[in-house]
Design brief:
heterodimer, A: 242 residues, alpha+beta, five-stranded mixed sheet, two-stranded antiparallel ribbon, 10 helices, 34% helix, elongated, B: 110 residues, mainly alpha
Chain lengths: 242, 110
């Protein structure tokens, strides 16, 4: 890596919901360069019509996920050294989501499924009530903590083969969110939540392939959360309330 | 594709199948090692309520378990949905149940 001298071959998917094709670019290699830097360089120096999405650039907002050499990655925190294949990059929109334009996908279905999975806090108290103490060492809080750092980037959704095979499947992120709320002692919507994740397209469709856990940039394990949901819904089915 | 009801049916049928499969394998090894002829085997099974119940339950559990398993594979690989998927599931269930019940009847009827 010696500044501007060397370049890399970058293949970027261009198109919309109707279809498209990969377009080749030569991008200068730089030190500590991320995949998002590469996309931004193309947009600023080669083709200003390139559409992509990002916001924070520091791995907090979950906006910039794309397929990089066939794998879902958070592009702002993926150094090209880790992603380069045969000295090149292939950058495409996230899998399992409809494309709006180029690298920007329509994430509506992804977020609609969060709601469908009851991934919404249902408070049992009002703001007038005193704050309910939650024991940080409690079993439920430990389960919630393990699942709570999701940044909604959609990488697990893109990595999931069940989502690819079954468009109705709620997906790892929505079910992981449902699991973290199921372990929230302040939430009163558990019956509706268990019912929501038990419908067709619910947690029982997971094949435990763990693509979600493999690619989650926050190192969460949605498969474990989904296994928890399967366990709790089965207990509920057999009449053993938690 | 799979809701809680089908998931539980598949898990519970697996729970029933596990000991029955082990029993079935044990019986096969026993029969082969003892060099039992077909007539001798039929002599033991025909008119036996115990064997009819053992293999009857086996067939029922297999029919439920396989129908749900194949339903998922067909839905995910062939994208079969709705009425077609329901029809396929029931057809596999009833087909296996019919074939299995016929075999159990043939071996255990007095």
């Amino acid at each position: 890596m010696d500044g501007q001298a060397n370049t890399m071959a970058v293949s970027v998917w261009r198109g919309d919901a109707e279809g498209g094709a990969f377009q080749a670019f030569e991008v200068p290699l730089r030190e500590s360069q991320t995949v998002l830097d590469v996309v931004t360089w193309i947009q600023q120096n080669a083709d200003p019509t390139l559409a992509y999405r990002y916001a924070c650039r520091v791995g907090m907002c979950g906006s910039c996920a794309m397929m990089v050499n066939g794998k879902p990655r958070w592009t702002c925190r993926t150094h090209i050294e880790r992603a380069l294949k045969d000295g090149g990059l292939e950058i495409a929109p996230l899998r399992n989501l409809p494309v709006i334009k180029d690298l920007a996908t329509d994430m509506s279905a992804f977020f609609d499924k969060w709601i469908a999975a009851e991934g919404v806090f249902r408070p049992s108290k009002t703001r007038a009530d005193p704050i309910e103490p939650v024991d940080p060492a409690g079993a439920m809080r430990i389960d919630a903590s393990a699942a709570i750092e999701c940044i909604n980037c959609g990488i697990c959704y893109a990595a999931c083969d069940v989502v690819a095979a079954n468009a109705d499947y709620l997906g790892p992120a929505a079910l992981n969110r449902a699991w973290s709320l199921l372990n929230d002692e302040r939430d009163q919507g558990q019956e509706a939540r268990l019912a929501a994740v038990s419908r067709r397209g619910g947690c029982h469709n997971c094949h435990s392939q763990q693509g979600c856990a493999q690619f989650c940039p926050k190192s969460l394990n949605p498969t474990a959360s989904i296994a928890g949901l399967k366990r709790e819904t089965a207990k509920n089915f057999l009449g053993r309330r938690r | 594709m799979l809701d809680l009801r089908l998931y539980m049916l598949q898990r519970l049928s697996a729970l029933i199948l596990a000991p029955l499969v082990l029993g079935h394998i044990a019986v096969m090894i026993y029969a082969v090692q003892d060099g039992l002829s077909a007539a001798e085997i039929l002599g033991r099974t025909q008119g036996s309520w115990a064997w009819a119940l053992f293999y009857g339950l086996f067939v029922l559990a297999v029919s439920v378990h396989a129908a749900i398993g194949l339903r998922v594979i067909v839905a995910e690989t062939l994208k079969l949905r709705g009425l077609g998927l329901a029809a396929f599931t029931w057809l596999v269930f009833l087909g296996l149940l019919f074939l299995g019940a016929r075999a159990v009847y043939a071996v255990t009827a007095a």
